[in-house]
Amino acid sequence: MPDSLLERIENPEDLSSLSREMLKELAEEMRQAIIDTVSKNGGHLGSNLGIVDLTVALHAVFSSPKDKLIFDTSHQSYPHKLLTGRLKRFATIGKKNGLAGFCDPTESEHDHFFAGHAGTALSLALGAAKARDILQSDEYIIPILGDASLTCGLTLEALNNIPKRLKNFIIILNDNNMSISNSVGAITNILSRIVNSPRSNRFYLEIGNLLRKIPGCGKTLVKQGHKVRSSFKNLVSSASFFEQFGLTYIGPLDGHNLDKLIDTISSAKKIERPLLIHVLTTKGKGMQSATDDPITYHGCNPFDKTTGQFHASSSKKTTFPKIFGKLLLKKAESNPHLVAITPAMPLGSCLDPFMEKYPERCLDVGIAEGHSVTFCGGIASDKRVKVICSIYGTFLQRAFDNVFHDVCLQGLSVIFAIDRAGLASYGPTHHAIYDIAFLSSMPRMIICQPRNGKVLKELFEIALESKDPIAIRYPNAATEEGEEPLCKREIGRGEILALGRDVLIIALGTMCDTALEVKKLLENEEIYATVLDPVFVKPLDTELLSQLLLTHNCIVTIEEHSLIGGLGSLINTYLIQNSLSGLQVFNFGIPDSFLSHGNRNDLLAEIGLDPASIASKIIAEKEVYATR
Ligand SMILES: Cc1ncc(C[n+]2csc(CCOP(=O)(O)OP(=O)(O)O)c2C)c(N)n1
Predict the structure, then answer these.
(1) pLDDT by residue (tens digit) across 271-327?
(2) Enzyme catalytic residues
(3) For helices 320-334 and 453-465, what crossing angle results, to 10°?
(4) CB of 476 closer than 6 angstroms to any ligand 1 atom
(5) Helix, strand or coil for residue 144?
(6) Cα(568)–Cα(587) distance, rounded to whole angstroms?
């Protein structure tokens, strides 16, 4: 007999064998399992602790996987994983070859979609419901949205498209009043506004009447409704807001009262209209430090689970985002016309000091990447103001057309500070490895990448002067601040880091360090490499490149970006266009497949993007280029 209740749950059906009291005990065990694992592996903590009771209730009421629970973003799917047969592998979450930190349909039939980017659940759920109705099936579709996903344009577009007669469609709004940082904007205000108008009472009664009509369950709901009358009144603005979209609003429910959650959701199942159940949860519930500081414990590094204290960082070096954040603040202090915009990532991108000091000039627009870029375009239309769009590379993908239509085409000099460029431990949803491919296709766009903190500062100086849009991409990696004074850089100028003669290695950003290591390994075989940091991917330093091509007949490109459309492919195009045939070319980068999650160095080794693998390939082909 298993020791714990959690061990008894091999699939959600097993919940039916537990009493209500046992379900509550189970929820506590789940919290402990989450704290235990995240304290060792790192990962998303606060949202997962907050959604435990709600997840237990949903799995107790619905029949997954037939009924489809569709998590938005899915960083809060750990409790769902615990109840859907993944307990034994739970300790591996986030690790290479272990469970993913997000929903992953290859991992379980209970995960219906990959997710990692916010704002997709409602559209996906509406699509799944459409397919269901075409097939005349009757399962429930249950999109689970965080309050911050209502700041996504995509969610609002889906909300605008909910068919009035849609059945077996229940939106769960898990409202903890937080994004990663504080939730922002008018919708957040709607969710939390206190309204004391006669309309609010009328609305409450309407809901009461509606529930009373439900056979066998209406009375319970109405009784509960009375108890929450006052808080309901306070939240009625949100109720009427959702009503306008054709949804029947139920709530707000205490997201930690399991009995009420189960009773209400079970009853709500019988309402034959699209519903929204508004559930109030506390981020970090069950761990004091996580409730006290939900921002820090949203996604976190390993910590001591008894004290909540984080382990000291092994690296004393600063990071690219930290250097950028500091620099931005410094520039903002001397330039009152400098503005920065972030779509919901002020902390990760280290904008918090700027935001604190100049809240009017450093703005979080919510999870609204497209808007953030177009908004920057609008700001940059007045040339007296300099605007920085600080955005994670993976999320910039959501704003492709905004960059094209609202910035490049308009000839506006927005600076894109592309954070988290390269591989991400979270996996395929978060690898930022396509931005060179799509940005380089846009006329006017300048793209560069610093190999260290000093070059980052130098590039930022250039960016401030640029009349064209410019993207500076950098990873969340440790780096050196670098000694001042700064070098004056020129747009489109590369830099030779080491001179050799046989092989020309062109490496981007932190891959320059890899290239220098490759160079050493090649020397053991008496192969002498030149290392070129192009600094700019667009425009390329074709002058320097053509000079070096006179003396090297083996070209190697190394980048932490998709091989398709990356630096290597731009160099290859240059070689072909200039009829430079007869060269041996090696392109090292990210292959055309979805790379999973795990530690960056492990991922790099897996795809042969580590110094030893690169050097061995170049050495193996030595005979070919040596005889050319
Ligand atoms: C498109 C996109 N932008 C930004 C993020 C980063 N991000 C991950 S979780 C999160 C906050 C989500 O808030 P909410 O949906 O309310 O859930 P909570 O974490 O509060 O439970 C953000 C901004 C993302 N995953 N996707």
Answers:
(1) 999 999 999 999 999 999 999 999 999 999 999 999 989 987 766 789 999 999 999
(2) 283, 369, 398
(3) 40
(4) no
(5) strand
(6) 6
Give the Cα separation of 263 and 261 in Å (integer). 6
Identify which of 74, 76, 183, 367 to mutate to test ligand 1's pocket (most ligand atoms within 8 A of the CB): 367
To test the pocket of ligand 1, the residue of 51, 54, 73 to mutate (highest count of ligand atoms within 8 Å of its CB) is: 73
Span 115-169, pLDDT tens digits: 999 999 999 999 999 999 999 999 999 999 999 999 999 999 999 999 999 999 9
Interatomic CA distance for residues 171 and 402, integer angstroms:
29
For residues 612 and 495, give the distance between their C-alpha atoms in angstroms, rounded to a whole number.
Answer: 24
The percentage of residues in the chain with a pLDDT greater than 90, rounded to a whole number, is: 84
User: 429 C-alpha vs ligand 1 centroid, how far in Å?
Assistant: 13
Distance 367 CA to ligand 1 centre (A): 7
Q: Are 447 and 473 in contact (CB under 8 A)?
A: yes
* 3-class DSSP assignment, residue 1: coil
pLDDT digit string (tens) for 246-287?
A: 999 998 899 999 999 999 999 999 999 999 999 999 999 999
Bond before 215 cis per omega within 30 degrees: no
Q: Is the pLDDT at 38 greater than 50, yes or no?
A: yes
Confidence at 170, pLDDT banded by 50, 70, 90: very high
Which amino acid belongs to residue 358? Answer: Y
Question: What is the sign, positive or negative, of the torsion defined by CA atoms of 189, 195, 199, 205?
Answer: positive
Separation of 149 CA from ligand 1 center, angstroms?
7
- Between the CA of 185 and the centroid of ligand 1 the distance, in Å, is 15
- 3-state class of 292 per DSSP? helix
Q: In the 8-state DSSP scheme, what is residue 313? A: P
| CA-based R_g, the chain, Å | 27
> CA-CA distance, 369 to 379, in Å (whole number)?
15
Banded pLDDT at 200 (limits 50, 70, 90)? very low
Structure tokens at 570: 């731009």
Among the listed residues 112, 60, 101, 56, the one whose alpha carbon sits nearest the alpha carbon of residue 78: 101
429 touches ligand 1 (CB under 6 Å): no
- Residue 239: predicted pLDDT: 74
| pLDDT for the residue numbered 185 | 84
Report whether pLDDT(223) > 80. no
Phi, psi of 623 (to 5 degrees): -55, -35
CA 117 to ligand 1: nearest atom: 26
Side-chain-side CA neighbours of 366 within 13 Å: the count stands at: 23
Residue 505's SS3 state is strand
Nearest CA to ligand 1 atom 14: 146
Ligand 1 pocket check: which of 76, 144, 157, 180 to mutate, most ligand atoms within 8 Å of Cβ?
Answer: 180
- CB atoms closer than 10 angstroms to residue 389: 30
Q: How many CB atoms lie within 10 A of CB 52?
A: 29
